[in-house]
Amino acid sequence: MKIRLAADLQPDSIVDGPGVRTVVWTQGCPHHCPGCHNPMTHDFEGGALVEVEEVLKELEQLKNQDGITLSGGDPVCQSEACLEIAKKAHQLGMDVWCYTGFNYEQMLNNPRQRALLEEIDVLVDGKFIQELKSYNLYFKGSSNQRIIDVKNSLQQGKVVLVEKYQNEKEEMNTYKKPEYIFI
Ligand code: SF4
Questions:
Q1: Which of 45, 58, 76, 82 could in theory staple to 100 by disulfide, Cβ–Cβ 3.0 to 4.6 A?
Q2: Domain 2-173, CATH 3.40.50.1980 — does that match?
Q3: Ligand 1, closest atom to CA 32?
Q4: Domain extent listing, the chain
Q5: How far away, in angstroms, is 44 Cα from ligand 1 center?
Q6: What gap in Å lies between CA 69 and CA 140, rounded to an integer?
Q7: Distance, CA 124 to ligand 1 centroid (Å)?
Q8: Which residues contact 48 (CB under 8 A, 6 or more apart)?
């Protein structure tokens, strides 16, 4: 099986979920949200086709990563390949976050997407909406997006949000640039 990726795996990210994470940048997104930060990842013919097996081997070589983050592009458009990657991450003791422009309910109603959902710990769902953009949000670009605890949501049959990421970041509101930073 192959997966179309926009870039190499990116270890050591601290902005794509909690802790230190490796980002899997998938290529191809149908949503075309105005203001998207990654428009180069939209083309379904772009990026590079890579054997999933190669990605799994790269995951095995990672050191000191808390988890992986499926991003893009929209990883849900390549559910089957992402499912294999998510399973491997779990086998290696890493948790799995996934960003998508689809929403949780849509994924529940699509068998292939639901299978992926069952291997995801936290889903950040919904399109990016420029008018709702804020820099004070945890791990998401606009306030409409939801940071969903997938395991609890599936167990309870309703969307359960990750409580600690719901409020805006207070420290950002009072941030002042230290004088020793010259940029
Ligand atoms: S879903 Fe994400 S990658 Fe796709 S257009 Fe929207 S912001 Fe960009």
A1: 76
A2: no
A3: 5
A4: 2-173
A5: 13
A6: 13
A7: 12
A8: 4, 5, 27
